[in-house]
Amino acid sequence: MISAIYNFALTTGANRVIRGARIEHVCGDPTLSAEKDYAFGMRIVTTALQTLTIAVPGPTLFDPMAPGKTEEAAHAS
Amino acid sequence: MSSPLRVVHYLNQFFGGVGGEDQAHVGVSVRAGAVGPGRVLEKTLGDARVEATLVCGDNFASESEAEAARAIGAELDRLKPDVLVAGPAFGSGRYGLACALACKVAQGRGIPAITAMHPENPGASSARRGVYIVPSGSSTTSMQAALDALAPLARRLGRRETLGPSEVEGYMPLGTRRVHDRGRPGYQRALDMLLDKLHGRPYRSEVPYAAPERVSPAPPIADLARARIAMVTTGGLVRKGNPDRQVSANAVRYHRHTVAELESLSPAEWEAYHAGYFNHLVNSNPNYILPLSFLRDLERQGKVGRVHEHIYALPGVSTPVAVSAGHGRSIAEDLKAAGVDGALLVAT
Q1: Minimal CA–CA distance to B106: which of B5, B14, B231, B8?
Q2: Where are the CATH 3.40.50.2300 domain residues in chain B?
Q3: How far is B225 from chain A (nearest CA, A)?
């Protein structure tokens, strides 16, 4: 699940949670240039796809904004 | 002196002495007096008589529910008991559902009814609203304990008494609210609760906490390049002008759209209709809440096997958890049936 309010997703039991940009623009950022907006959205989406290939023990956060940390999952609770 | 309570007891084919699984197909029959567990029930109730026992095969009750309900109803019309007792069904799923059915049939005729079963029995979870169910153990070894808990409530229901709240009386919550005066205003009760908490004393919240359901994580996908990936959004994505008349909150259904021919979601064709956030930015680029444009690029690059041709959308706001869970289950079943390997759910 890609969500900007990722804490909700984690505490309500979603298992693979990807931090989105903001509630109003989850997969991208309209304040960036079109090119950067797309690259940012792509980073979120590819992170999300990668989580589908990773086994998780339970609700786990993946943060595409944390550089080089996409594989280092932070476990909820 | 009041006359003894007149009870009709509902049992399945096994407890009714008809037979085991091989007799689960038998329809509704009536025995005079108490049978099997009914004898223990009668003794536990005290001043009561089990006038008759209705026996029905578990398969018949679940497969021919309407017919079973009619037959049970006809017998209840004839017998006119003070109360119907069903089971206990313990952990047996079909029996639990049948007991709940019998209770509903009785209640529909103004006859109070009560049953007992294990809290995880499907009969308890599907019928809890509106049926008095006393929690029991999962096996027959807890028969006496179950009847001890059930009997006083059955007696009072049979005497047309109104039961107090579930937490006091011990039945499972009916899911209904009753107006009730707690005697002291809320701020005083809240302060007392806070003081109890600060002093480490026991206290009880007046708002029951419903722990979220835990779902076991799906196993990982071995190869994304061969996987079929679907997209779901709770961002209220609609076709431009909302021709499908999606609501903006409290979704009673979800919408499925085809994107087989689309490379991207164009703001000329798609927009958001959702009461819970500012939709303007999504209306300039709907891919923010349903990332079709990104997935198409990844599909072209061979990083993703196939983008599933259907997308699923609803406004995820002000929707009761039980309703949301139903939508989720239904979407998941649909995706599974279509051979989808993984899904991205974008939640606003």
Answers
A1: B8
A2: 5-169
A3: 11
Could you write out the DSSP letters of every residue in B267-302?
A: TTTEEE--TTS-THHHHH-GGGTS-HHHHHHHHHTT
Q: What fold, for B5-169?
A: Rossmann fold (3.40.50)
Instruction: Give the separation between CA B98 and CA B57, rounded to whole angstroms.
Output: 9
pLDDT in tens, B318-342: 988 889 999 999 999 999 999 999 9
Binding-face residues of B in 254-313 toward A, CB within 8 A? 277-282, 284-285, 287-289, 291, 294-295, 297-298, 303-304
* Residue of A6, A15, A43, A52 to mutate when probing chain B, most B C-beta within 10 A: A52
Q: Token digits for B105?
A: 């049939």
Measure the CA–CA gap between B245 and B239, rounded to whole angstroms.
Answer: 10
8 Å CB contact between B82 and B159: yes
Pairing state of beta strands B255-258 and B306-313?
Answer: antiparallel
- Indicate if the alpha-carbon torsion angle B322, B328, B329, B331 is positive or negative: positive
Question: Which chain B residues touch A1 with a CB distance below 8 Å?
Answer: 345-347
Q: Which amino acid belongs to residue B295?
A: L
Taking Cα atoms as reference points, which of B5, B3, B165, B163 lies closest to residue B84?
Answer: B5
Token pair, residue A49, equals: 């796809």
Calpha distance B125→B136 (Å, rounded): 14
Beta strands B29-32 and B48-56: pairing type? antiparallel
Per the CB < 8 A criterion, the answer to whether B344 and B313 are in contact is no
Which of A45, A46, A47, A50 is the best substitution to test chain B (most B C-beta atoms within 10 A)?
A45
Helices B65-79 and B93-108 meet at what angle, rounded to 10? 50
- Could you tell me the pTM of the whole model? 0.63
Q: What are phi and psi of B74, to 5 degrees?
A: -60, -40
Could you report the per-residue pLDDT of B105-158, keeping only the tens digit for each? 999 999 999 999 999 898 987 666 789 999 999 999 999 999 999 999 999 999
